[in-house]
Design goal:
This protein is α+β, with helices and mostly antiparallel strands and about 190 residues long. It is built from 2 helices and 13 strands, in the order E-E-E-E-E-E-E-E-E-E-H-H-E-E-E. The radius of gyration is 17 Å and the shape is globular.
Length: about 190
């Protein structure tokens, strides 16, 4: 008689997981498509001044949980999509971006514009889950290769990467606060 056994679970201790880092981003893979059919999970450190820019995915669902710090966030379709500043967007029902603090959860269904930015002088930390796996983990791996490939970012390579991974960028990604003389813009 053959006994069927359930697969082993996964326990990732504090500080565990594979980390990818650039001066502007720090992502630690906690659960990948190798371990879950439902979602990839990451811990993300959002440095001061980082703005992911408003974007959307037609196939992916995402969940963000703020662990530490503060982030400006939105998850709605605006009345008008302006290209430069998603923080000015307003939904047809009057919703605007909010300041998310520790304990805030943001759920983003497919097709919903969303964004987050760290307007403070301190890093913020969040738990991020993307479904289905492994799209976001592969995206992060390839993005970090581009960002670490030299002193200048190949914007065309980033745009092609985003298109391949179902990311429609609606406003620019920024690595430093607007108005900062040394601001490096990435779109």
């Amino acid at each position: 008689m053959t006994l069927l056994t359930a697969p082993d679970g996964l326990v990732v201790p504090p500080g565990g997981g594979r980390a990818l880092q650039t001066p502007a981003q720090h992502v630690t893979f906690k659960v990948t498509g190798e371990h879950s059919r439902a979602a990839s999970s990451f811990e993300v450190v959002v440095p001061p001044g980082f703005d992911v820019g408003a974007h959307l995915h037609t196939r992916s669902e995402e969940l963000f949980y703020v662990l530490e710090g503060e982030l400006d966030v939105l998850a709605f379709e605006p009345r008008i999509r302006t290209r430069q500043n998603w923080r000015e967007w307003e939904s047809p029902t009057g919703r605007r971006c909010v300041r998310a603090t520790a304990g805030t959860v943001i759920v983003v269904p497919p097709g919903c514009p969303h964004a987050f930015a760290n307007p403070t002088g301190e890093p913020a930390r969040m738990f991020f889950q993307a479904s289905p796996p492994p799209d976001h983990e592969r995206y992060f791996e390839e993005l970090f290769e581009i960002l670490n490939s030299g002193p200048h970012v190949d914007e065309e390579a980033v745009a092609k990467l985003r298109a391949r991974y179902d990311i429609e960028q609606l406003t620019p990604m920024r690595m430093a606060p607007p108005g900062d003389a040394g601001a490096a813009h990435r779109s």
